[in-house]
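Hi Y.,

Following your request, here is the sequence exactly as I used it, all 242 residues.
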Amino acid sequence: MKKLYFTFLFTLCIAFGFSKNNTEDIITELGKVRHHVDAGEASFNLEDLKYHSKKALLAIKTVKGTLDIEKCEKTFEVSVKISDLLDSALISEELVEGQRYLNTSKSLITKAFYEFEICSSIEHADLALNNLEQQQNQLKQQQLELERQAAQIKKQLEEQKQKEISLKKEAYINSNEKALQKTINAYNETLKACGCNLSITSINTNNLASNNNSIEQIKAFYIEKMLSISQVYQSKLSACKN
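Below is the corresponding structure, written out as tokens. Let me know if you'd prefer a different format.
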């Protein structure tokens, strides 16, 4: 009887040791996923982002292959979603697009840690109870950080959009200024060729065609200006007949 008891105890210790190692492996792999997702999102070029995305994908595949799906179904489902986002990041054609996929996956990685903590607590109740409060605090801090980063990315995208619009307006204004001056020069050459002692004065309209106005407003301004100069030219040309 005593021999049977020690045999049972030995078997139980081996089983617990295997389960513990399994748990540590999954946590380690999830840590790798988080590390490479963070590094990928911070990348300054698409190639580096895809390198870290690939590393994270390998780690999450290891997690999926190691999990006991029956006991950790939710963790497995979250891992599949993370895997899908990493796949999308790998085929992204734009850096910002890839960063958006990685940023979305970060909250799921946090959820994967949380769900795995719950499912593994069936076998390691003491560990789960000791770490639950700390994990919840970490989740709150991570969520706040994710929200801050999401707001920062949104702000950067908006600033980039406004900068592009501003550059487009500036190019449009410069193009119209050159066309306006070219037209005035052509009119003056014609007046001179006709022997008219008259000319059209150049006017710098940059301040009038403000970058603060919309493209439509700037366009309307230059059309009106062209029509006005044309009328002045016709008036001066007609005056030469007298």
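Helices lie at 2-41, 46-66, 73-90, 95-120, 125-193, 215-239.

Thanks again,
Q.
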